[in-house]
Write a structure and sequence with these properties.
With 331 residues, the protein is α+β, with helices and mostly antiparallel strands. It has 4 helices and 20 strands. The radius of gyration is 19 Å and the shape is globular. InterPro entries: SEC_C_motif (IPR004027).
């Protein structure tokens, strides 16, 4: 089965960020830009929109597009979403019931917000484990866009959130998916890259190659004038293996040398003897801010841009692993 969709939000007065989800029987990937458009036209290019969620029966990479914050209400979606995912986990700690409770919570708490534009999509990709076997999974909770390229209501948020879920059939090795959330159309120069990216997924190429192509797609879109500056060049990627013994990996993709690197939010909601754990806005860097922690990506065998003299793949090109606390894995 193949499930490749591009969501086009037909809005005239504003454009929101990009969340790209891809997957096949072996790996699920989420790549997002990190730009937050501030009131008055400024930008925060390091606003996290990506999370890793582990439940009793699933592992998902989750991102959101649309409403990022309401400054006058002291509301920030990235904090709300992390807390909400932790709160809706009990008592079942299973993904389907969590999504149902998350939808109800969004309708109670997001829909009544007194803000001009409260369009919000929450999208996830990963694996649900049935009888110990992984099944590629996708979901979306949204008040403005569906997964099939249709706006729910033109130019504004609907009154209620809707939920869409898709699971591959058990034992279906050919299942694939690809989805772009939050942006109304791809610029011409990015459309061919999107096609190339989907072919990499179909061919089951290494996740790093797929992520690299997806980051290129986001940056081509960011450079297009039609995005009105709402899409940024700083990106975050999450890769989840269908094998539950393999830790998820994340990578912060910077377009400039920086002293600080960032990680996605982490929500461990497996239940059992451990309470729900939520980590938000994780980052790390050198004590000396003149020492580069992250650098722009270059071909793996090229010298690292940090000036160390080592090859990029042995220096700042290494992939970070997201370590989870000990305990039961999804089964």
């Amino acid at each position: 089965m193949s499930y490749f969709k591009v969501t086009r939000l037909l809005c005239n007065n504003s454009i929101v960020t990009m969340i790209i989800t891809l997957g096949n029987a072996r790996n699920a990937l989420l790549v997002s830009d990190r730009r937050l458009t501030l009131p008055g036209g400024g930008h925060d290019d390091e606003s996290n929109k990506a999370f890793v969620l582990t439940t009793r029966d699933a592992r998902m990479a989750i991102g959101f597009a649309g409403l990022a914050e309401a400054a006058t209400l002291r509301f920030k979606t990235r904090f709300w979403l992390a807390q909400a995912l932790a709160e809706v986990a009990p008592p079942s700690h299973t993904i389907v019931e969590m999504l149902s409770r998350l939808k109800a919570k969004a309708n109670r708490e997001i829909s009544p917000l007194r803000v001009t534009d409260k369009r919000l999509s929450i999208t996830g990709v990963g694996y649900i484990y049935t009888n110990g076997q992984p099944r590629l999974a996708f979901f979306r909770l949204s008040n403005f866009e569906s997964p099939d390229m249709q706006p729910l209501v033109a130019d504004r948020a609907a009154h209620q959130f809707q939920e869409w879920t898709w699971w591959a059939e058990e034992g279906e090795p050919s299942a694939m998916l690809g989805n772009i959330s939050g942006f109304f159309t791809l610029p011409p120069q990015a459309q061919s890259v999107w096609g190339e990216t989907k072919e990499l997924v179909r061919a089951d190429k290494p996740p790093q190659a797929i992520v690299s192509r997806t980051v290129k797609l986001i940056r081509l879109t960011a450079d297009d004038r039609k995005t009105q500056g709402s899409v940024g060049r700083q990106c975050m990627s999450v890769v989840i293996s269908s094998d539950p013994t393999v830790q998820p990996t994340s990578r912060y993709h910077t377009s400039e040398v920086k002293a600080t690197a960032y990680m996605p939010g982490i929500i461990d909601a497996r239940g059992g003897p451990h309470p729900v754990l939520a980590v938000m806005d994780a980052s790390f860097g050198a004590v000396d801010e003149t020492i580069p922690t992250v650098v722009p990506e270059v071909p793996r065998n090229r010298p690292c841009p940090c000036g160390s003299g080592r090859k990029y793949k042995y220096c700042h090109g290494r992939v970070m692993k997201i370590k989870s606390r000990p305990g039961s894995r999804p089964a």
